[in-house]
User: What shape does this take?
Amino acid sequence: MQDKKTVQEDRKNMKRDKKAKIISIQDAMCMLIETKGYENVTIRDIAEAGGVSIGLIYKYFPGGKFDILKEISYRYTDELLMTNKSGNIDFNDFPGYIRNVIKNMQQYTRDNISLSKALIIAALLDDGIVEEIKNLDFKNEYYKAVSELFCRFNGVEIGDKDPLEVLIDWGIAVKGVIQCDLIYSLSLIKSEESLIDLMVDISLRIWGYQNTS
Assistant: This one.
């Protein structure tokens, strides 16, 4: 019979193994979208590229490709918004936080430009992904936690507005500018810093920020 310490170690190893396989599946999905386009990627392709079985993919992602894409979105949202490192956030400096987030979003888009363009093309051409997005529940616990994080900042005042609705409005506005820059190279017309200033200004207005210092 295994002792308590051995059982705990086995559980930790299982969790690490599960996390590694999930990341492998997600990374394979991203790579395949870049090279084949979202609509042409199959679960079999992902399994082969990720070195896992088709059954394991459906075990972790019952909804298939879009479930994987959704979890990738959550994973990078955590990194970009620093939601998993809230202890390092200065809740007295909302403008500074927003500026850093926007810079992170721009850098992520640059670092993954092929993936970003492929997803935009998929959204334009693939009716399936459009329907999946329409059916996506943005009012879930994950996005609720993100919206509550924003509302913790001093100076943020949205009155009786639904924080989730404000978060969605903010995401549409900022991602819209970033995607327009990706497609039309707005930085050739306006400097990168002026684009950041524009997005920061939009963000502060959407979140009703008032400087309380």
Summary: The chain has two domains: 1-62, 65-213. The chain has ten helices and no strands. The mean pLDDT is 85.
